[in-house]
């Protein structure tokens, strides 16, 4: 009887420990995976690695432009952006993108990220910085992929600095 009570207490304690740690551990794993995802997006843009960038996108993904008031398949945007990647890879252009977040929601298979991205490019001696408020919906089926990118509106350096 004493052994059964001890066994029940051990199982109960271990079960409570697992439940108490799981959400935090799951969040940490999700955020680690998403941080790696955004680092890969940045690397692909910085190096002009178009194929790597395409691999971060879901084939059914959608781009929503709040500034331009339109939405269309991400595949169409990729076709338009390809020349910028080629120019970056060849050294004609320097490109970079960084991300900061104000909200990160999700679980192990889906994520909704809100923040600002800073896209910088330099070509022909001219440098341009674009701060863009964005939301992203990502899904994970083995690897994280962007399903919807919503470029909501222009942002500012001051708003960017608040997200450090």
Main sheet attributes: strand count, strand direction, barrel closure: 6 strands, mixed
Which residues sit in consecutive blocks of at least 5 with pLDDT less than 50? 15-21
Based on Cα principal axes, name the global outline.
globular
The CATH architecture assignment turns out to be: Roll
Average pLDDT reading: 90
The fold-level CATH name is Nuclear Transport Factor 2, Chain: A
What is the CA-atom radius of gyration, in angstroms? 21 Å
Sequence of secondary-structure elements: HHEEHEEEEH
Count, helices: 4
Helix content: 40-55%
Write down the CATH class.
Alpha Beta
What distance lies between the first and last C-alpha atoms, to the nearest angstrom?
58 Å
Strand order of the largest sheet: 2-1-6-5-4-3
Q: How many domains, in number, for the residues?
A: 1
Estimate the strand proportion.
35-45%
Work out the number of β strands: 6
Secondary-structure-derived class: alpha+beta
What would your notes on this structure say?
By secondary structure, the chain is of the alpha+beta class. Helix content is 45%, strand content 42%. It has helices spanning 2-47, 50-54, 74-90, 157-162, and strands at residues 57-65, 70-73, 93-106, 110-123, 126-141, 143-154. It has a 6-stranded mixed beta sheet with strand order 2-1-6-5-4-3. Strand 5 and strand 6 form a beta hairpin.
Task: Describe, in short, the structure shown.
With 164 residues, this protein is an alpha+beta fold. It is 45% helix and 42% strand.
